[in-house]
Each structure stands twice: as C-alpha cells, then as structure tokens.
Amino acid sequence: xxxxxxxxxxxxxxxxxxxxxxxxxxxxxxxxxxxxxxxxxxxxxxxxxxxxxxxxxxxxxxxxxxxxxxxxxxxxxxxxxxxxxxxxxxxxxxxxxxxxxxxxxxxxxxxxxxxxxxxxxxxxxxxxxxxxxxxx
Length: 136
Hints:
Layout: E1 5-8, H1 14-23, H2 31-37, E2 43-49, E3 52-61, E4 66-74, H3 83-98, E5 104-107, H4 113-118
Parallel strand pairs: 4-5
Antiparallel strand pairs: 1-2, 2-3, 3-4
C-alpha cells in the first residue's frame, strides 16, 4: 500500500513554518523570529502531500552536548494518519547516527503527544527534574 506522503529533510521556509505552527495549534511565531531561528536548526524534516507541507519537526541545540526536539506539527486535516510517527522516525534516525552518546536530548510533550514520544524512547524526567520555561 502506497502513501500519499513523502518526507523532505530540509528546513521549511519562514511562511510555511509560521503557517504550519499556527494551523497545528502551536504557539505562533513572528516571521522575524522564524527568519532568525530557522537557519540555526541542526536537523529538520517536512512531510509533504504532493508539494504541500502538511507536517514538520526540528532539532535545535549546540551540536554536541545538548539537543532539543521542537516544532512537531501536523495540519489537523492530516492528523491521525501516522505522520507524527513518520516525523519522529526521521528525527530518531538523525539522533542515532549524528548525536554523540553522551549528549542529552530533550523535548516538551504537550498533552497526549507524550505517548508518541515514548514510542521513540523518551521518558519522563520528573521527579528528578522538571521542565521549566520563560515565555516572552
């Protein structure tokens, strides 16, 4: 059985990034912030249906010690079709081949997304440590 989806290992353009984040229910980012931040991605994957980007994910970090999985987003009309697993599969392959064994890879799981991330080996850090944020 073939799938109508393909992956592209590339950073999305600013407009696509901003639109996909908002449409998927993630906090919006300004075009200015996206233009500054996106080039600093260590890894990025996009899911396409034809030429339309319907999902994405990125890894950011220092490239040696610390990595963070961010921007896992799928358009609502395409959710429930395994695209989150497809995105995380590409991210996991990058981690397995490019990330040093001593590195710390983290993410923040919103809601039931924790169930997806657990399938790829991510575990809760609490009570030893808890996620904290300063939102601007």
